[in-house]
Automatic annotation (TrEMBL):
Region spans: Disordered: 1-28
Record field: compositional bias (Polar residues): 1-16
Source species, domain of life: Bacteria
Protein name per the record: Molybdopterin cofactor-binding domain-containing protein
Domain Aldehyde oxidase/xanthine dehydrogenase a/b hammerhead: 35-141
Pfam families in alphabetical order: Ald_Xan_dh_C (PF01315), MoCoBD_1 (PF02738), MoCoBD_2 (PF20256)
InterPro entries: Ald_Oxase/Xan_DH_a/b (IPR000674), Ald_Oxase/Xan_DH_a/b_sf (IPR036856), Ald_Oxase/xanthine_DH-like (IPR016208), AldOxase/xan_DH_MoCoBD1 (IPR008274), AldOxase/xan_DH_MoCoBD2 (IPR046867), AldOxase/xan_DH_Mopterin-bd_sf (IPR037165)
Alphabetized PANTHER family for the sequence: XANTHINE DEHYDROGENASE (PTHR11908), XANTHINE DEHYDROGENASE SUBUNIT D-RELATED (PTHR11908:SF157)
SUPFAM superfamilies reported in the protein's UniProt record: CO dehydrogenase molybdoprotein N-domain-like, Molybdenum cofactor-binding domain
Amino acid sequence: MAGTTTGIPRDVTQNHVKGGVGESTLRPDGTLKVTGEFAYSSDMWHEDMLWGQILRSTVAHAEIVSIDTSEALAMDGVYAVLTHEDLPAAKNYGMEFQDTPVLAYGKVRHHGEPVVLVAADHPETARRAAAKVKIEYRELPVITDEASATAPDAILVHEGRDDHHSGHVPHPNIVHRQPIIRGNADEAAKRADVIVTGEYTFGMQDQAFLGPESGLAVPAEDGGVDLYVATQWLHSDLKQIAPCLGLPEEKVRMTMAGVGGAFGGREDISMQILASILALRTGKPVKMVYNRYESFFGHVHRHPAKLWYEHGATKDGKLTHMKCKIVLDGGAYASSTASVVGNASSLSVGPYVIDDVEIEAIGLYTNNPPCGAMRGFGAVQACFAYEAQMDKLAAKLGMDPVELRQLNAMEQGTIMPTGQVVDSPAPVAELLRMVKARPMPPERQWETAGESADVRALPGGLSNTSHGEGVVRGVGYAVGIKNVGFSEGFDDYSTAKIRIEVINGEAVATVHTAMAEVGQGGVTIHAQIARTELGVQQVTIHPADTQVGSAGSTSAGRQTYMTGGAIKNSCSIIREKVLEIGRRKFGSYHPAWANAELLLEGGKVVTDGGEALATIADVLEDQAVEVEEEWRHRPTQAFDLVTGQGDGHVQYAFAAHRAVVEVDTELGLVKVIELACAQDVGKALNPLSVIGQIQGGTTQGLGVAVMEEIIVDPKTAKVRNPSFTDYLIPTILDTPTIPVDYLELADPNAPYGVRGIGEAPTLSSTPAVLAAIRAATGLELNKTPVRPEALTGTL
């Protein structure tokens, strides 16, 4: 019994824990969030705290002639007004390139760049003080597109580049270039009976998370700082923050605060460095919270893109070749543009077998807003283009668009354009079959017998602009491929610290990782894995912080694979340690301790035949077992800079969509009726969460298809619509029924066979909606989002 050091273990009966892997366990934070009781980072409070405020540039490209802070400093309640001259250490930071100023110096490179930093005892005082700062600019010409960026006499967005890509790009305003050459596309084109080309434009999308950037920095007695912040990657932040504060990393202690969504937009630094500088300068806690206007300038966006494609096929539909050029606008600072270029190029063929390809992808420096990570990470833009091409080919060949895709679909064993073999299931044809086989939703649902029309089911909805006179239905299909995890030789790992001990007579596990819970449900999965691996019911999730090793970013669909894998690995080590303790204590009482395969299940040590030998509490008594271990996926390789060859990705994910839309062709209004998805998830660790992720990704793809775009003035590079009044996102009234089917075809290289699920549905939902609108209208529609004027010809 617990507390006894020797003796025969008490009789035990086998039972199983609830809430393990494969169950739809409810989220521990779910009820708090829907009732409004969850504490987000913007809710944090500290006695005697100050408020930080940023003054941002009003122009996109200009020399800073002078900054006058005297009036702001003279205001009551103002504790600090800082410029770049007041920065304590390094003036630049960045994830891949350290090219982003903490506060602008010399010149500003985009609209909304931070220039001056204020701390005051009230947020309104801080705002008024910032408004009193006088900045004189000397405006410079703006770089806004490929032509202006790569002209021989183009102004350089960054002079004197010395980053690791600068030596191989054809122009200093190109962040990175990645070609991929396989076979001979020119020769293969001669075998084509049909060739189609297209030029496509993908708009700049915002992550539009509902919780704006915010955090609290508290100066510490040791001269360091404790930072509570909403982020996606604590340890990446730490490596950028510490040099800018002039502190060793151990004196910058970071803890995750409640996050109101991310989708890539919190992977870069926002207010972390600025709040910390103010706290150290004033000796007081400093809170910073962006309003929505500031948020549009305070984080990176999805790269807008221009894409040129050529596909050829034989008359029976077999693809002969593909050529493409993809130009991604990275904006003023690099962020993760180089990696997005690698993704866009390596996934630009889509989930198809094409032996002969010629691909080029580049990322630009411009004076447009900085762009970086967003759900889909370069694969979204490519999918929009290659799926439009598939529909063009099908139309020219007189083939069913789904059958054309199935005829050319990749499968396990297919060789990617990079030379990498797809070594796990790739059920592309089956996913297309699944969405096509679904029953169609009823037509003209706004018409009900004996009742007036329900305008909510009509294009235009409650605006009551259409009553169905010119409404036409369209159906479209699309399928996409997305990599999972970090690629191109990056040392991608995660760390898990697991502890098991007896509390009040029951074995309890504690899971401590630095994983950022941004809404994806990782904390739920972590507890499920611990229950399954350790056989305990009670699992405590320790708050994420930098007192444990890195968990990497909550992005790239990697956390269940990577941190889940790390937890599973650490739990397996814990399990062996517990069993070894049990063998030492009780091995003489039952031969199974020495001879049988032993497991931890239901709070007990059991044989693989189900016989219970002892409770875990009896084994441990007052002893705790703790393990902290790193876990890595198999290595990847950098793509060759000339040919693009290399095993660059660790895993691929696939999803297909069928969109059903109704379009008022006279008014240019679109109603998406249904957006069905089929996806291979490898293993559904939490089926309810799987469906939620698929539906969420699908909805973001819907948004960029018909409404979402940050509009940047091409003459001034200023953002025109930095608000949710003018930047529209889907509401519950815009979101259609999203039925989900999923396959569980295990990846043998992944923990539990899992496959990242969060990003793939964001790819194919957009082109499926566009295909459906094309089917309804007969228009080519090569740009996202589709606006009413594009459908009515009134552009």
